[in-house]
């Protein structure tokens, strides 16, 4: 899962990194609109209700709150106060220390048997990922079937990049990877570049020069505090639908949703007239919520006893693993900790990336092959 990168974090820069960055949202202004869902009313009305305070949900909520009353519901807690989430060094530990209920990384295994993880924390997977940042491939705009306004897209990139994207400083392992990619013919060399371009480049990182993580949560600092509520430990269970009929057709619209707080208490969040429910619960969470709300393939919904509100054959379908080959080596010289900074992109569409981590190898104490020791042995593992 280390290199699953590019998928949803594809938004962003080209030289605006020297602009003033917004205040990092840890202060009272930020916290005042983040509340435990137990403190939210049992029923309230909003213009926009966003499910999932993750990579997509936070910037969307911040933008909408400039003009509308917005509620964000996030099933996890806040990332602050958890050093492993906030530093490069904590990356692997976060992915290894998972539990069923509230670890910020939720482990899961795909139907093909591939172990993976997804975020369960304010900021979503941008708080547990490897921090590599890229603008989208041009092909994406051309083939998405959507008519993008590229002027707005580019402004959005700059908006994100100005806040949370940094130029990484290459040290020994990443420099060696860059030189090796060029030696292997992955050219041209594109230097530091946030565009998705064939060749070898240094990409953007959401880790700053001190190795501190920045994430989608930081983008909440753009929000208008008086217009936004962020409920944490709020698990959305179902979108509420109502029929509206015009003379020619009958339609279902989302009128609100039901969520549960940490204490098991139920709440209703409802949309005002012309309001919307927006699902930003991730590639798994969003279709899951549609299915729980009765939107999906009729036979599948029937097999779970879910009443069908709208038959749609593709909801929950066509989700695939993004395969990678990983080669890990134990180098003979110590290497720095590094996540993804350099990337080689080939004409055929392969991405070659590398990281280096210092990993504790603990002896079990009872092994016939290892000396008993209470302190682990720290080894550098470099991965391509
Ligand atoms: C280990 C790892 C490393 C990665 N590395 C990179 C990288 O270096 N670069 C890159 O570009 N991409 C990387 N990715 C991928 C990238 O992080 C994701 O594509 C992106 O974060 C997805 O954004 P999202 O908004 O769709 O979902 P998320 O950011 O996951 O947000 C979904 C949010 O919805 C919440 N949620 C879900 N269901 C509910 C519910 N029912 N009620 C309330 N809340 C709910 C979740 O808790 C979560 O916070 C990596 C991913 C992983 C797992």
Quick synopsis:
The protein is of the alpha/beta class and 384 residues long. The chain has helices spanning 28-31, 57-64, 83-86, 91-96, 138-143, 150-164, 172-183, 282-292, 298-303; strands spanning 34-36, 43-51, 70-74, 105-109, 115-119, 132-133, 189-192, 199-202, 204-205, 228-232, 235-245, 250-260, 266-279, 295-296, 310-311, 328-329, 342-345, 351-353, 355-361, 377-383. It folds into 2 domains: 1-166 and 213-280, FAD/NAD(P)-binding domain, CATH 3.50.50.60; 169-202 and 325-384, Cholesterol Oxidase, domain 2.
From the 3D coordinates, which CATH architecture of the largest domain would you assign?
3-Layer(bba) Sandwich
Strand order of the largest sheet: 1-10-3-2-13-12-11
CATH superfamily of the largest domain: FAD/NAD(P)-binding domain
Percent strand equals: 25-35%
Number of separate structural domains: 2
Bound molecules: flavin-adenine dinucleotide
Radius of gyration: 22 Å
Specify the CATH class of the largest domain.
Alpha Beta
Instruction: Give the structural class.
Output: alpha/beta
- The number of helical segments is 9
Uncertain stretches of 5 or more adjacent residues: 1-20, 365-372
User: Strand-and-helix sequence, N→C?
Assistant: HEEHEHHEEEHHHEEEEEEEHEHEEEEEE
Overall average pLDDT: 88
Number of strands: 20
Biggest sheet layout: 7 strands, mixed
How far do the termini sit from each other? 13 Å
Helix content: 10-25%
């Amino acid at each position: 899962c280390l290199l699953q990168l590019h998928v949803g974090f594809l938004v962003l820069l080209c030289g605006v990194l020297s602009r003033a960055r917004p205040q990092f949202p840890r202060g009272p202004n930020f916290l005042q609109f983040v509340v435990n869902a137990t403190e939210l009313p049992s029923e309230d009305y909003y213009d926009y209700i966003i499910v999932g305070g993750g990579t997509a949900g936070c910037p969307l909520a911040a933008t909408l709150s400039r003009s509308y009353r917005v509620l964000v519901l996030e099933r996890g807690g806040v990332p602050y106060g958890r050093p492993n989430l906030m530093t490069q060094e904590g990356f692997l530990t976060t992915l290894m220390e998972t539990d069923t209920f509230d670890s910020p990384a939720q482990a899961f295994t795909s139907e093909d048997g591939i172990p993976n993880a997804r975020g369960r924390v304010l900021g979503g997977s941008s708080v547990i990922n490897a921090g590599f940042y890229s603008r989208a491939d041009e092909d994406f705009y051309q083939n998405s079937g959507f008519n993008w306004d590229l002027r707005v897209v580019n402004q959005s990139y700059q908006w994100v990049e100005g806040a949370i994207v940094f130029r990484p400083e290459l040290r020994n392992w990443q420099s060696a990877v860059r030189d090796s990619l060029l030696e292997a013919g992955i050219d041209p060399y594109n230097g530091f570049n946030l565009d998705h371009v064939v060749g070898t480049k240094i990409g953007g990182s959401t880790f700053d020069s001190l190795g501190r993580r920045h994430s989608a949560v930081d983008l909440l600092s753009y929000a208008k505090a008086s217009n936004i509520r962020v409920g944490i430990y709020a698990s959305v269970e179902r979108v509420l639908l109502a029929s509206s009929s015009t003379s020619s057709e009958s339609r279902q619209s989302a009128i609100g949703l039901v969520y549960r707080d940490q204490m098991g208490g139920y709440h209703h969040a409802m949309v005002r007239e012309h309001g919307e429910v927006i699902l930003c619960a991730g590639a798994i969470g969003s279709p899951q919520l549609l299915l729980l709300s009765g939107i999906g393939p009729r036979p599948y919904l029937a097999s779970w006893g879910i009443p069908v509100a709208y038959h749609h054959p593709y909801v929950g379908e066509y989700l695939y693993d993004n395969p990678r080959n990983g080669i890990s080596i134990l180098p003979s010289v110590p290497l720095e900790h590094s996540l993804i900074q350099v990337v080689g992109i080939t004409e055929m569409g392969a991405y070659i990336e590398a990281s280096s981590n210092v990993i504790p190898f603990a002896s079990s104490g009872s092994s016939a092959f290892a000396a008993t020791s209470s302190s682990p042995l720290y080894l550098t593992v470099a991965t391509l």
